[in-house]
Amino acid sequence: MTTEHFVGAIDQGTTGTRFMMFDHGGQVIANAYETHEQIYPEPGWVEHDPNEIWRNTQSVMTDALSNAGLEAEQLAAIGVTNQRETTLLWDADTGQPIHNALVWQDRRTTDRVEELQEAGMAETIREKTGLEVDAYFSATKAEWILDNADPIKTQRARPADLRERAADGEIKFGTIDTWLIEKLTGNHITDVTNASRTMLYDIHEGDWDEELLDEFGIAREMLPEVRPSSDENHYGTTDPDDFLGAEVPVAGALGDQQAALFGQTCFDPGDAKNTYGTGSFFLMNTGEEAVESEHGLLTTVGFQRSGEPIQYALEGSIFITGAAIEWLVDVELIEDPAETESLARSVDSTDGVYLVPAFTGLGAPHWDGRARGTIVGMTRGTTKEHIVRATLESIAYQTRDVAEAMEADSGIEMSSLRVDGGAVKNNFLCQLQADSIGSEIVRPVVDETTALGSAYAAGLAVGYWETADELRDNWQVDREFAPEMASTEADRKYGRWQEAVERSLNWAQEE
């Protein structure tokens, strides 16, 4: 009897690590999850312990298999997806990080970003990488670690300077995908989507850029090899003598938002999705054309399959959406995120209250690292229900900010938007979103599309799935939300939102 095979996906996110296994129909057949510590050394600084992430990765992989009564030999392939710009450096000899990972949300390099802007580097960086100059991306994070981490004690007579060791190939750079791929296979590899988020990679040339490496003092010897997102040559295999106990190809990797694009089967130009997680990330496939944004969006790599051209995307990165709901829990306005729907429905409106969740600055299309969270319009009659509703509305309004920029840049009018992520279980939010952008919101049956996308990439690479059409056939609608609000009313509310955003900008100044 032939043993049934599945494809596994490591989904390493901002707050935790998940391992899922999918069958040929794209259905989840095993699942395990663990959170990791969020480390805040100073205001605006966010770190993760890479060793904790690796321990949790091993744990969720073995737990998922055990809980489902499956063997590692039943894995046809493993894909990796990850929180993207989060950056770490590690010792090539020992495999130990030289500092905690600096998380994508971390703002400690804002001053350096402003130096680059004042030096006129913003246009050069945008032309080469498709990115705005921002502390969000990896380049200034890696530079900071090289400048500030403790020197590593070596066999030399003195602790070696990190840059000196890096130039000698003794220090490795990576985003979290690279860290996990090396731990799994022993190979120092990233995929083209994650490379495109470093602010070091020329997305047109398809290579690390010497001018940018020089600007940030990053030695090429530190950098991983860049491979397709779905790689028929594989990134390597797991060691049968290691924790998994089997030799499994690791054959796909995508940054989490590109993975969701792939998992939502947005394979054609004009296809768009929005993922509602800690932040929200709105991507539209633009095909083989890297569309340059004139409205504050990022031009980025969508995905690449073996032997095929890079597929590009426009992206609107919204830093805080789900994290705004977490904030409501933190300040004890609610006990559980699930409460937000009933509380928001209990009032007819926000009563003029607008909340701008710029807790870590504003991303697309504003790109203001000094914006800060703002609540306007409160009166003595304002209740927690109004604030909860305003928080949900802020998610919808930020998405409209990006949708309008997307349509202006692409020239494509969106008729529907595929959505995924934890927050889309909230029907009230989905309806708000449809009303705000005036487009149909489509929620799929399998909403873990980030993990699914990386599984699809790995499965295609090993022939578990033969064609993209098989994946399209797997995609099924759970529910569609059509706009119900009059466009004039939606426009009026959105206009007030824009006024609230103006009040949040450029708030965090040095004392």
Oligomer: single chain
* CATH level 1 class label of the domain at 40-47 and 78-255: Alpha Beta
Query: What class do helices, strands and sheet pairing give?
Result: alpha+beta
Helix fraction bin = 25-40%
Helix count from the secondary structure assignment: 16
Low-confidence stretches: 153-159
Largest sheet: spatial strand order = 17-18-16-15-21-22-23
CATH topology of the domain at 40-47 and 78-255: Nucleotidyltransferase, domain 5
The total count of strands amounts to 23
CATH homology-level superfamily of the domain at 40-47 and 78-255: ATPase, nucleotide binding domain
Domain Carbohydrate kinase FGGY N-terminal: 8-263
GO cellular component, one term: cytosol
Binding site for ADP: 14, 18, 278, 322, 422, 426
EC number: 2.7.1.30
Task: Describe the model.
- With 511 residues, the protein is of the alpha+beta class.
- It has a domain at 40-47 and 78-255: ATPase, nucleotide binding domain (Nucleotidyltransferase, domain 5).
- The chain has helices at 50-67, 110-118, 122-129, 138-148, 162-167, 176-185, 192-195, 210-216, 256-263, 322-330, 339-345, 384-410, 427-437, 449-462, 468-474, 487-504; strands at 6-12, 16-22, 28-35, 47-48, 75-82, 87-91, 101-102, 171-175, 189-191, 201-202, 207-208, 225-227, 236-237, 249-255, 272-276, 280-287, 298-303, 311-318, 354-356, 374-376, 416-420, 440-444, 477-481.
- The strands form 7 sheets. Strands 17-18-16-15-21-22-23 form a 7-stranded mixed β-sheet. Strands 3-2-1-5-14-13 form a 6-stranded mixed β-sheet, sandwiched between helices. It has a two-stranded antiparallel sheet with strand order 4-7.
- 53% of the residues are buried.
